[in-house]
Each structure stands twice: as C-alpha cells, then as structure tokens.
Amino acid sequence: MIPIRERNFDAEFMLSATRSSGPGGQNVNKVSSKIELRFNLYTSALLTEEEKTIIALKLANRINNEGELLIVSQSERSQLQNKEIAIERFYSLLEESLKPVKKRRATKPSLASKMRRLDHKKMLSKKKNDRKGFDFE
Known about the structure:
The protein has helices at residues 26-30, 49-58, 79-98, 111-131, and strands at 13-18, 34-40, 68-73. The chain is α+β, with helices and mostly antiparallel strands. It has a domain at 4-98: Double Stranded RNA Binding Domain. The longest helix has 21 residues, at 111-131.
C-alpha cells in the first residue's frame, strides 16, 4: 500500500480563492488570499474503498452532503502560503484518520500507585478534620 503523502492528489483538489476576513487593512480588501480546498472523497481514484469508509467515519463532521472534505486556510497574507497550509492540513488529516487505533491492554495498578492514592486520601482526610472547629463545652 502506498503511503498517503506519496500519492499525488493534486488533480482531485478543487481550489478556490476568495477574499479573506479579519484584520489586514487594504490588503484584505484587494487580495483574494483565502483558500478553500475541496476534495470529493467518494469519487477519488487514489483511495481504496476501505480507506474511503474509514475516512468517512472518522471525518464525518468535516464532510458535507456531497461527500466533499472542505479545508479552509486564511491565516497568511499570501495566497500561495495559504494553499500550502491547506494541502498540508489535508494530508495530515488523511494520515491521522487512517492511523490504526491502538488496542488497549488491561493492566492492574501497581502497589506503589495504590500506596500513593491511599496516602493522598489520608492527607485530604486529615486536612478536612483539622478544619473542624473545637467544641469548648
């Protein structure tokens, strides 16, 4: 299986540039530096069906009704830098979603950790006992 970063998804990206929001003065009003990267997950030829289902499950909140993964970048003043950031975020999202989940191994607490817990409980108990007022009668 070819790693995600070695596959060339450039042909499957739909990039659009719009005006960015926020501070920036005249540059914001003149330059379209905000980049929207759209990637249609279901029509991709570079992903296997198994990979598509895993990504669809893990990134369900980022995929719209048309099956598009939408990534927006507007942090930089340059359109080129925002494009690079969006593409990097795309690859890291796919890698993270395709990373297998580590199986949990059940373990028992060590004797030292049990002792630390009990010592902490005794310390808190003593602190609360010391707060009680004295009965002078």
